[in-house]
Design goal:
alpha/beta, 7 strands, Rossmann fold, seven-stranded mixed sheet
Length: about 200
């Protein structure tokens, strides 16, 4: 069963930051491939709203990391909504990391830290939540999450139509508690919120 996601309320300051982010993303996208050209035409729904809908699923406090952040989706969008929170963006592609650094500076998001490194080599503080969008299969993501999450931390992972297959596959080697949420932007997508993540047999 999928739960509905509460709507995100209006916030003029956040909307102004996200408008600046959108313009910067489209400008950079002409030079480096941050998002696919076919989705850039619908960037507000396909990328920004799709990322922002994770906001009500985050814990109320604690540091957040977005793994394989790419264009900052969802990590930089969430940071724009939560400028007081520490948000870590992990991205190994140097050009994409350069975009994230410029975008965080342009949006005056002083609590954002960009880690231009592979996830396996990232040094992060204990986290309240990790996110990852279109990065890797669920069993791989759970391995990353377990490395970085503080006790009680959660992983928030948007998945497409393969969500249930990935959950079944992951259950072979992992124990976790899962909540499913219906995406507000894609009828075929499910957002997984996973807690109590540990390897099977531990």
């Amino acid at each position: 069963m999928k739960h509905p996601i509460p709507p995100v309320g209006a916030d003029p300051a956040r909307e102004a930051r996200l408008a600046t982010y959108r313009d910067l993303l489209l400008r950079w996208n002409a030079t480096i491939n941050l998002v696919a050209a076919k989705t850039a035409a619908d960037i507000d729904r396909r990328h920004i709203a799709d990322s922002l809908q994770l906001l009500p699923l985050l814990p109320a406090e604690g540091q957040i990391a977005d793994l394989g952040s790419g264009a900052g989706l969802p990590g930089l969008v969430l940071a724009a909504a939560l400028p007081e929170r520490d948000v870590h963006l992990v991205e190994s592609d140097r050009r994409k990391a350069a975009f994230l650094i410029e975008a965080a500076g342009t949006l005056k998001l002083g609590k954002v830290k960009v880690h231009a490194t592979r996830i396996e080599q990232a040094v992060l503080p204990p986290l309240a939540a990790v996110t990852a969008r279109a990065l890797a299969p669920l069993p791989v993501l759970l391995g990353y999450a377990m490395e970085f999450l503080a006790p009680g931390g959660i992983a928030i992972l948007p998945k497409g139509r393969t969500a249930e297959q990935e959950l079944t596959s992951a259950a072979t080697d992992w124990h976790f508690t899962v909540e499913r949420f219906a995406s507000r932007t894609d009828p075929e997508a499910t957002i997984l919120r996973l807690s109590e993540i540990c390897r099977a047999g531990h």
